[in-house]
Structures are given as C-alpha cells and as structure tokens.
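It is worth pausing here to work through a concrete case rather than discussing structure prediction in the abstract. The textbook approach is simple: state the sequence, then state the predicted structure, then interpret. We follow exactly that order.
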Amino acid sequence: MRKRKNLFCMLLVVLLVFSLLAGCGSPAEEDAVEEVSEETITEPSEEEVVITVAAGAVGQELELTQLAAEMYMDDNPNVIVNVLDTPDLAQDRLGLYLQFFEAQSAEVDIYQIDVIWPGDLEEHFVDLYEYGADAVVEDHFPAIVENNTVNGRLVAIPWFTDAGLLYYRTDLLEKYDFAPPETWEELVEQAQTIQQGERDEGNQDFVGYVWQGDAYEGLTCNALEWIASNNGGTIISPEGVITVNNENAAEIIDMAATWVGTISPEGVTGMAEEDARAIWQGGNAAFMRNWPYAYSLGQEDDSAVKDIFDVSPLPAGTNGEPAATLGGWQLAVSKYSENPDVAADVALFMASYDMQKMRAVDGSLNPTIMDLYEDEDVLEAAPFFGSLYDVFINAVARPSTASAPNYNAVSTAFFRAVHNVLNGNTDAATALEELELDLQDITGFDIE
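Step two, the predicted structure:
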C-alpha cells in the first residue's frame, strides 16, 4: 500500500515539473508527456510483491507489455506486475527516468531503456549476470549484448531491436510503373510523380514521403541514416574522434532539406513516428521511413493500406550504400528496487523466447533472440524479418558508447543542428562546422 501511495506522489511531482517546463517547450514536447492513469495501478495485499515496469506506448508496445505482465502473474500469483505508461518521445521519457534516479526511488523496478542509454545510465542498474542472465544471454544478438554490457556488467537484457525501413505503396508503384527506389534521387523522382498524380485525381492531402523530422532522437536516427548512406561516416567515431563535418554529410543533409514542402509536408519538421504513421496508414503517402512496428499496424482491418504495401532497405546516397540506424529497447532493473530478484525474474521472462515471439507475431517487434528469425510463425506474420535480416544485423549504431556519459548532449546538439538546416535557417556546411565545435566542447574529443 505504501508503495502505491509513494508512486502517485512521485508521479504527481514529476508531472508538475513537466507541466512547468512545458510552458517554455514546443507543442510536440507538451503533447508527449502523458498522464498516468490510476486504473493501471493494482492494489496489493500485504503478502504480495509489487513490481512496476516503466514501458513505452508507441504502436502496440503498451498493450503487449501488459499482456506479458498478465501472463507472468498467472504463473506467479504472489507477484503483481504494474505497467507504467511513459512518454513516447525518447528525451521526455529519459527526463522522467532521471527524476526517479535523482530521488533514488524504489517506485519503479524495471525500466524500458533505449539502446543508446546503457552507457549513460549504468550506475542506476543491477548486473543481470548476478540474477541468472548468463543462462540466456548467448541466445541474443552478440552486438546488442555487448552494447548493454558496461565494465563487464550486463545492465540490461535485450528486448527488441529496430532498424529504419522504407515503407512503400505496392499499388501505387505498379500504377506509376516504378520499382522500389534504390537511391534517394530515385525516391524523390517517384515521390514527386506519385504525389502530383494523386493530387490531380482529387486527393489534395496526398504527399510523397513522410519521416521523422521533429527536433528529437528520431531525427538523429533519420539524419544518421542519410549521412551513412552517402559515405559521410558518423557523428563521432568509435575511437572518439568527431567526424561529422564533411562534404558528403553536408551534401545529403542539404538534399533532405529540399524535401520539406515538396515531396514532404511543411509539417514534417514537427513529426515523430506516430505522426508519420497516421498519414501513411490513412493512405495519404507513397513512402514512409519508420521502424518495423508499423508493419503489423498497417495490416489491421481499419488500415487504408492493408495488403497494398511492402518494405525495403532505405535508399542509398550518390556516394554510398543503404544504411539503417540501429534502434531497439532493453529491460533494466533498478538498483533502488526493493525486490531486485523478483524484478530480474520479470525482466528475463518478458525478454524470453516465448514473449519475444508473441511480440514479433502480434506487434512486428524485432526479436533480439536469433533463433526467432527462423521461426515459421514469426516469418509468416512478418515476412520481411527474413528477407531484410541483413539490414537488422548490419544496422548503424549511434555513438552512444564512444560519447558516454555525454551521448544525450551529443545527440541533442546534432539533431538541433540538422533541424536548423531543415527549417531553412542555415545551410548544412555552416551547421556542421558549428556543430563540431559544440561537440568538442561537450566531449573534449579531437576533430578529424
């Protein structure tokens, strides 16, 4: 009972802080901070252990996490697993988590953390090797396990992975006699042609291409894909050298800026994943960049694009090869938890083969367990898991390890610089020159 009351007190304080900050924030940031419903909190008895999981709600994430919690409780009647709905935007979710960490709060036991956070947040989590993870860790992609291992400690168990994909309308490509675009130039040409053709036929809301252009972590993912696809390298190399200021990077960012207001709506610079998906799933876009989760949602009965779309690798630049940013989420157990052994058991259950299979089949959430990419049920529900397997295992990592514990500041400086170019406030060469100096101040690293 005490834990439930404390949880609501903590949440009220956190939400009050966010509401005060929202007065000087953008509308997108205000919208991203979501209320936590009292209905999601279950009343425990004195004998029961309560475990609270802070989870995401993009697409079907929250629903699938709640289902896993119910399945765990069916097998463990003395444990109550509550699922806490957290903001969609990564930086807003991180801000909420930091409030709990600063207070060393025991109210949240398990945190869903981004693939880029282990290095920055590892001090707040237990070593899952001490709670049985060594028995299952070899089932997961080694690169993700390595990402989640800090100073020999496994601070999070891989839960699902991600890589950016290009969604395209199969019916419209056939109608206009196109094959899926392999370069950004081809995408622009096709998007312009299809957009104009559909508008001429009466759909004035139709656009060629939607993506994530708001000033947040999603823009870092999009822009890193552009740069890597044009042989522009990354933001900071694994060796700790700032490499982002180069001609190939500037060229492709300037190109992306020309999409705004032409093949993409003016409002794309305020779009996150769900904004882009709403336009796409409503049947009003020829192409979309998004994560795999949008696939199963696009095939639902109320989707305007059901059975008339497919996915492919993102296009390449004129100087490079296709590239997709590595995404994904992990489950970490708070070192402030009053029941870390039970919390670890819940986390390992949620990341198990059966639970990852359920999430893959029902939500198109990419497993981190390698054997699931050969599972017949998974491949039937999401065929692209097999055909685009190389995209997922070769995805481009963000420089979270190289820049730890400063990755959040590095990414913020990067996406703000790119956002300024997209909004027409400056050109890419100027923005990247200023950015490398900002990154040097943040990290102390050398410039290439």
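Step three, interpretation. Confidence is low (pLDDT under 50) at residues 8-41. The first strand starts at residue 49 and ends at 55.
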